[in-house]
Amino acid sequence: KIDGKDNYKHYIPEMNEDSHNIYFLEKDMRLALEKEEFYLEYQPKIDVKTKKVIGCEALIRWTHPKRGIVSPAQFIPIAEESDLICDIGNWVIKKVCKQLKKWHLEGINTVPVSINISAQHLLKTSLLDTIFTALKANHVSPSLLELEITETSLIQPNQSVFSTIRSLKKLGVKLSLDDFGVGYSSLTHIRKFPLDTLKIDKSFISKVPTEKDDAVIISSIIEMAHGLGLTILAEGVETEEQLLFLEEKNCDHIQGFLFSKPISNDHFKQALISGELI
Ligand code: C2E
Ligand code: CA
Ligand code: CA
Ligand code: CA
């Protein structure tokens, strides 16, 4: 690793603080994968009508040995600059499948878990095999796994993205479109994909019911999604007012701090057993 050290000495003087941070975070993320410094939290998804937990989203967490907790909003974009995001994604897939197996063996009535898949990862032809292998190795039903993808993945899809998505669908894995409303939100390209769920971005939810425009946009998104046979989930629900509004507009599922923050696997297990949050 002498070369690495030389590079480091050579580059440091030209680096500003940001690129310096990026350089170290990337290096540390590779180590973090080896040393198991990453872990997952699970945020419950709630059915608006029954108020029952119907699923959850796995969210990655990192306790850095020196920096302490580093937010995914900080390190995921850096990981997305390289192949590292695929290594992280593969780690998450395996971890979630192992967790689902564990809950099953413990006699827990499990719910589907969603995983965030970055655009670069979806481009990998190996993704399908990784998912298939992880499900099989842990005897997990594909219907217990959901992939959350963003529109970036679908804007200029190549043949392999289409074929990966089709194969995943055939296998029984669920597919949801994350952060809906902030990107292109083009209905035409959405129609080409076998989606199950649209997740309305939290930036819309945070402004209802006060902002009239956002309220109108949300109602039409819900109506449109239902017209297309899609389930609709609102993310970032923090207040009773927002919940009431979404109930009135027939939103199917919600996720947000009003019901629960992302919680540890043990805490989520307790919620599944007792049927109660917090
Ligand atoms: P996202 O996929 O949109 O995830 C939802 C984010 O909103 C999470 O932030 C969650 O903690 C937060 N959130 C949930 N409910 C509320 C609420 O009521 N109010 C507010 N203000 N926020 C809420 P988190 O965990 O910090 O993750 C940030 C982003 O990092 C995620 O956004 C996702 O894009 C990315 N990310 C997280 N975990 C993974 C992962 O395992 N793989 C990949 N590729 N990306 C991930
Ligand atoms: Ca997500
Ligand atoms: Ca989101
Ligand atoms: Ca996001």
From TrEMBL:
Domain EAL: 22-276
Tree of life domain: Bacteria
Protein name: Diguanylate cyclase/phosphodiesterase with PAS/PAC sensor(S)
Species whose genome carries this gene: Evansella cellulosilytica (strain ATCC 21833 / DSM 2522 / FERM P-1141 / JCM 9156 / N-4) (Bacillus cellulosilyticus)
Higher taxonomy: Bacteria, Bacillati, Bacillota, Bacilli, Bacillales
Whole sequence portion shown: 560 to 837 of 840
